[in-house]
Design brief:
By secondary structure, this protein is α+β, with helices and mostly antiparallel strands. It has helices at residues 21-27, 59-71, 92-102; strands at residues 36-42, 105-111, 114-115. It has a 3-stranded antiparallel β-sheet, with no helix packed on it. This is Putative UPF0047 domain protein.
């Protein structure tokens, strides 16, 4: 049984949902060496999260962002502050809430040197 651990960085992005599969695969060429296994990804930032979703329609990412904004808005309906923690800006605390709800890690199966995903084909 073999395993490896590797740290890599993704380019900073503004608030939103992004596809990172290609960046992950190119950053981890070692995946090709595994017939079967598990990839565990963990993000080391408290206002960022990882999730698995479909890529069939970009509306899915936009709808996810919209839904999360309704759950953890940056401000109240009249523009009022909602959170005590606002030293880093009004969007910081909502990002922490969204990250806590979604999570900081995902586990993806590896089969025949490739990530197994649930996207429709």
């Amino acid at each position: 049984m073999s395993w490896f651990q590797k740290q890599f960085a993704l380019s900073p992005q503004s608030r939103g949902s992004y596809l990172i599969t290609d960046q992950v695969v190119s950053s981890l060429p070692e995946i090709r060496d595994y017939k079967v296994g598990l990839l565990n990804l963990f993000v080391q930032h408290t206002s960022c999260a990882l999730s698995l979703n479909e890529n069939w329609d970009s509306d899915v990412r936009e709808d996810m962002s919209d839904a999360l904004d309704r759950i953890a808005p940056a401000e109240g309906p009249k523009g009022e502050a909602l959170y005590r923690h606002d030293a880093e800006g009004p969007d910081d605390m909502p990002a922490h809430i969204k990250s806590a709800l979604i999570g900081a890690s995902v586990t993806i199966p590896i089969k025949d040197g490739k990530l197994v995903n649930a996207n429709r084909t």
